[in-house]
Amino acid sequence: MELLNTILFADEGGPVAIARPEGHSPVLLICEHSSRVIPRRLGDLGLAEELRSSHIAWDVGALDLSLFLSRQLDACLIHQRFSRLAYDCNRPPESDSATPKRSEVYDIPGNISATAEEKQARVDGIYRPFQAAVAQEIARRKAAGQPTVLVTIHSFTPVFKGVRRDVEIGILHDSDTRFADSILSSLDNCGFVVRRNDPYGPEDGVTHTLVEHGLSNGLQNVMVEVRNDLLAGETSRKHVEQDLLRAIAESLSLEEIA
């Protein structure tokens, strides 16, 4: 069977998908953990179907939230088409968690046994094309005079390593706090437990995309984390969607976007 690259067969399609490529919004949405699909060449990575469908494989509900925001804002969305267990596109190749040997409390046998050459194939076949797609879109927008605010969308599990998380929405940032500050202000009194750099922060290595494509280009940026149980129920999901839509729209109107 024909190979698209060293990790993907041609009939699996490319590693990156782009929705609303001609969107007029300043917002450029990124969803790095949108899929639980594992490339066929990697088999099942030694994991049962239950784990391959769980939060260790993807950010449950994050793509649907991203697509909602993309439609409502008329914003371009770039998202990954394969599981972060194959390669986590929010991590650089030198990071141990780029191809995690363990996620939460679960060993990933197929990653533990992966050779350096096999890991490099994932870098070349998944990570590099994803990074190139984001960089090319930012360059296109700059050339067209279209301002850009980078917004990455994630979800997290309510219980991590046996500990219940009470935070419901996390607004994360690295050294540039401008857009995060505005989002936090807009979400004040929204009814959810909203916190800054919680349940993760820069010290956890989660701001790679923000640094690589936001800070390096002088773009305002923010990472949004939503507890995934809120995205499972229709009422809470709609509440989250509307609150985040409002917060982003208000922040765009308050900020001077270069």
Q: SS-based structural class?
A: alpha/beta
Task: Indicate the CATH class.
Answer: Alpha Beta
Number of E strands: 11
Helix segment count? 7
Report the helical percentage: 25-40%
According to CATH, the fold-level topology is Aminopeptidase
Low-confidence stretches: none
What profile does the largest beta sheet have? 7 strands, mixed
**What is the name of the CATH superfamily?**
Zn-dependent exopeptidases
Write the layout of secondary structure elements.
Layout (H helix, E strand, L loop, with lengths): L15 E4 L7 E5 L17 H4 L9 H12 L2 E5 L21 E2 L2 E2 L1 H4 L3 H29 L4 E8 L2 E2 L2 E2 L4 E4 L5 H9 L7 E3 L11 H7 L5 E8 L6 H21 L4
Parallel strand pairs: 2-3, 2-6, 6-11, 9-10
Antiparallel strand pairs: 1-3, 4-5, 7-8, 9-11
Q: What are the main properties of this structure?
A:
alpha/beta, Aminopeptidase, 258 residues, 7-stranded mixed sheet, single chain, globular, two-stranded antiparallel sheet, 7 helices
Describe the overall structure.
- The chain is an alpha/beta fold and 258 residues long.
- It has one domain: Zn-dependent exopeptidases (Aminopeptidase).
- 33% of the residues lie in helices and 17% in strands.
- It has seven helices and eleven strands.
- The longest helix has 29 residues, at 116-144.
- The protein is globular and about 50 Å long.
- It starts with 15 loop residues before the first strand and ends with a helix.
Q: What's the gist of this structure?
A:
The protein is α/β, with parallel strands linked by helices and 258 residues long. It is 33% helix and 17% strand. The longest helix has 29 residues.
